[in-house]
Amino acid sequence: MSATLYQQIQQFYDASSGLWEQIWGEHMHHGYYGADGSQKKDRRQAQIDLIEEILNWAGVRTAENILDVGCGIGGSSLYLADKFNAKATGITLSPVQAARATERAQEAGLSARSQFQVANAQAMPFADNSFDLVWSLESGEHMPDKTLFMQECYRVLKPGGTLIMVTWCHRATDEAPLTADEQKHLQDIYRVYCLPYVISLPEYAGIARQLTLNNIRTADWSQAVAPFWNVVIDSAFTPQAIFGLLQAGWTTIQGALSLGLMRRGYQRGLIRFGLLCGNK
Ligand SMILES: C[S@@+](CC[C@H](N)C(=O)[O-])C[C@H]1O[C@@H](n2cnc3c(N)ncnc32)[C@H](O)[C@@H]1O
Q: Could you give the domains of the chain?
């Protein structure tokens, strides 16, 4: 599918990852603020708590060989490699992210057990049945073909292994189709964050069933993570962030100016934070 989309995603993360790391740190995903979103906590801790809560929810207590699909600068990959004393491989479309993740692995003394590369999640350069944990945290929303993306995750998963996929969704449409205004709101989000489109969590579950994934479970954690956007908005208007934004360029500035779109998306129940796990 469209080279242009992949180029846009690459450029978006090449340009913005340095600033994100400087302001926020290594995790490029939502934070967890308690099941009802009421807990107040340090923002980096909230992001680590999200990883821990996801593992706990999925019942994952060990892993030996992990694939982080859409790895950013290796935030989850290295966290998981360290926690489970495991091997971790991360893929991203951004050469800047892959290089920084590799550097971070060296800094953390994890280079012998981790590797990062530029590769497309829709056509992964890995053999079938390679990994016992396939982890995708907030990358599915970028994928132009959600079925192919999940097929690839399934293909590289070892029999008995666990797939964990956490992604931006829109609300379920079984009771009412998306209104024109909701569709316009989604289009604005897609444009700013380089997303082709998102789907609902029940649609992801339908794809997972077709893959014959076992023990499929889903959860909607929108309430738990929605406060993240208030914290991001506050952090974007500090002098350090504004200076960094001006240096990072227009796509990053546009992303920052549009942070309210996601906050409003959660407020009106349009944007949903979906989790799916299952075993091969
Ligand atoms: C929001 S970041 C999440 C990073 C990381 N999972 C984390 O939580 O810190 C989205 C990531 O998905 C990656 N991505 C998007 N489309 C991809 C594709 N087709 N193949 C591989 N990676 C992709 C981007 O390069 C980026 O690293």
A: 3-279 (3.40.50.150)
**Ligand 1 binding residues, C-beta < 6 A:** 9, 13, 27-29, 70-72, 75-76, 91-94, 97, 120-122, 137-139, 142-143
For residue 216, the CA-to-ligand 1 centroid distance in Å is 23
Dump pLDDT digits (tens) for 24-64: 899 999 999 999 999 999 999 999 999 999 999 999 999 99
40-59 burial string, b = 16+ CB within 10 Å, else e?
ebebeebbbbbbebbbeebe
Q: Tell me, rounded to whole angstroms, the distance of Cα 197 from its chain centroid.
A: 14
Instruction: Compute the distance between CA of residue 65 and CA of residue 105 in angstroms, rounded to an integer.
Output: 16
For residue 139, report the distance from its CA to the centre of ligand 1, in Å: 4
**Whole-prediction pTM:** 0.94
